[in-house]
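Ticket #4471: structure export looks truncated?
Reporter: QA, pipeline team
Priority: medium

Steps to reproduce: submit the single chain below to the structure queue and open the exported record.
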Amino acid sequence: MDLTRIFVLVYDSDPAVSQTVCSTLTEAGYQVSFALSESDALALCEQRFYNVVLVGFEPNQLYAASFMDKVRAISTDTQFILMSSGGTIRMAVESIKRGAFDFIPKPVEPTRLHESLRKALEHQIIVAEDPSVRVRLRHTIGPNIFVGHSQEMQKISKLINEVAPTDVSVLIQGESGTGKEIIARSIHEKSRRHSSAFIAVNCAALADSIIESEFFGHVRGAFTGAVSDRPGRFQLAAGGVLFLDEIGDLSPKGQGDLLRVLDDGYFRPLGSSKLVKSNVRLIAATNKDLEEACAEGRFREDLFYRINVVTIYIPPLRERTEDIPQLIESVSHHFCAKHHRQPKKYKPEVVRLLQSLPWPGNVRQLRNIIEHLVVTVSHTVIKVDDLPQKLIRAIPNEATLMLRPGMKLSQVESELIRQTLVRVTSNRSEAAEILGVSRRTLHYKIKQYGLQNL
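Actual output as written to the record:
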């Protein structure tokens, strides 16, 4: 769960309570604001959307219900958790009747607070009237698959922050399972268009016969079976982002139709005589080498340059194995909460073993493995014997250096050091001797390539 995208307001007239609750939530990673008066709390709600508002009150005070009504007039999708000393079951029932999601007695117990917040957010996904709130939450409360300190992921995070506020087209490249759509959604959520729709299209599933209708929509009577007007993906994404997944599989006809609207800025719904102005930001993704496809005539070069203003390359998991320990922790925490399991710990030898795997399915495969362990292993400490036998059999018999054509020499050196530390020895002195360098030189290289966590 990426709590840095969840906004919580703590409103309690008791400064000590506000400070304690705010500290607990800030340490957990939430974006927290606080108010000591109703006027300040309402002013904050006018400035931004809060997923959850925590309201402190005393049993003899009745302002909580009227305060919730005032906030709902500003934001209908905000959830409320009430906090009170001397609470009873009757008071809890009455609080929920008045529109609160949950009731927590004071002093607030951190575990109960975190559990209540998690459930309130899951409820918000279902009941939120604003679809953009639901969409953002579905991805926000999932595991953060981009944790880690590898140089590659730090560069991606920096690039996302640089391109998100603009409207430039972005091409995201990477193997299947690396998280290309999550990168696209991250760009959208940090952009000026974040309150508008994010519409995803799987280009590989578009047959020539339906491409125009899917992209641009159609009017009633445009073809047999068109009994009513139907908006296309460009219309549905108006003001927001159109995400074209697997664009390398788009047919020649689809490439031509897409290039036309990108060049002209207008499109015509099928069967209509009216032109519609396009107002979308285009983000595309592919697991193919589009430059090679252009050279072989399988992809239009002019379209490639239109969608490739900025390129983000996501490295496969095997090239950022130093991130795997944090990935395991993030994914495990998410699935333990989702499936109501006790938090799991992973033996160091389990983590090292997972770092040695080739991961052809990348982060998606790692997620599946961790979810399997969370659900099927009853004890809290995961051992090597708990891993699926099929996974263990996939461990290479010999350590091999994984390279790809076009890598820089610095990347080769980084990969050699990484795999020596992961697959041969984590002892820095031994690794330096094996690599034929001094321990000081190795320490410098480890810092240079961001490999400190191996």
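Status: closed, not a bug. The export was complete when the record was re-opened. Leaving a note from the reviewer for reference: The chain has four domains: 3-140, 151-313, 329-393, 397-454.
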